[in-house]
Amino acid sequence: MKERLADRDEAPVVPIGVDDDTSISEGWVPVDRTEMGIRSRFYPEEWDFYIRPATVQAIKNWIGIDEKNALQMNATFDEIIKMCVRIKCGPQIISWSHVNTWDRFWFILKVRELTFASNKNTVTFEDNCAECDEEITFELRSTSLHYEFPDMDIVDKHWNEEEMEWEIDPAEYGVDDEAPINLWVPTLATQQAIIDWAQRQYQRKKKLDETFISTFLPWMIKKASRDEVQFDRQVQKIEKIYKNWSVPMYTLMSDIIRNITINPKETLKAVCPHCGEEVISNVQFPNGIKVLFTTETRVQKFGSR
Questions:
Q1: Cα of 242 vs its chain's centroid, Å
Q2: In this predicted structure, what is the pLDDT of residue 24?
Q3: Which residue has the higher pLDDT, 229 or 280?
Q4: 164, exposed or middle or buried, with CB in 10 Å at 0-12, 13-18, 19+?
Q5: Mean pLDDT, residues 153-174 taken together
Q6: Distances in Å between the alpha carbon of 195 and those of 64, 74, 200?
């Protein structure tokens, strides 16, 4: 396996527009958790988040991304988080991999906005208002991302903010003789552990249950073991539970996960300057996603591809 470029970190350059008097060393700037809205409830209250501008190496990795290679895309996204997002609990540093999967793109956009704070390097595209048909310019920013949230009464009833877990009794929903359910929000660490595990299974020519892997497994792992053997055992134990579900239990679990997931929609919200209506448009990258961290240089484009 090739050495991950992200492991050779570089000191960032703080852009103009970031307060030089900040007490955060090495250019780290605090993130206002209120910007996350309800998503902030799915992190311990005592955690503080910081971001810094993208390093030269991170930008190189991003520009070199192969958008047809899903594994490379995933790794490059995670490298930005690893190098440019920090979590602290008092004096303790919490691993970047504890970022929830649905927040990854939001943090990447926050890093991008800090990186280009001085030169206003924006990513925009045009769409038409569904109400008045006038053309609107959408700017891709963290504040414009559109999310689909669980019902608040579900969150208030079943989300334990002290234990950071979902607690649900199947008997309340007509499924008797089943133990209470505990589920955990999927993190980048869990996601990567599952990807690595699935790759090992493919290499061993093992048949995989895609529904189990993509829908249920990410929510049923409290903490993914870094040891391959131990993680294999974790998955085997969870899969045994999954296979023993009755039809009513399977139906309930499908319903639960569908209703507790925060879905980061690939859409942006904006207010039409012509008619004042809120407009939603699909996120568009006319020149590919690598445009997010492409900087203006004097280097001329080579060829037309």
A1: 26
A2: 47
A3: 229
A4: middle
A5: 96
A6: 22, 10, 9
> 165: domain range?
152-260
Copy the structure tokens of residue 39: 């998503």
What is the torsion angle, in degrees rounded to the nearest 10, for the CA atoms of residue 240, residue 246, residue 250 and residue 255?
-140
Positions of E strands within 21-64: 29-30, 47-51
Per DSSP, the three-state class of 270 is: strand
Q: Which residue has the tokens 């852009």?
A: 15
Q: Are residues 19 and 79 in the same domain?
A: yes
Q: Do residues 169 and 114 both lie within one domain?
A: no
Domain boundary among 98, 121, 144: 121
Distances from the Cα of 99 to the Cαs of 26, 44, 168, in angstroms?
Answer: 21, 11, 23
pLDDT reported for residue 68: 81
Tokens standing for 265? 């929609």
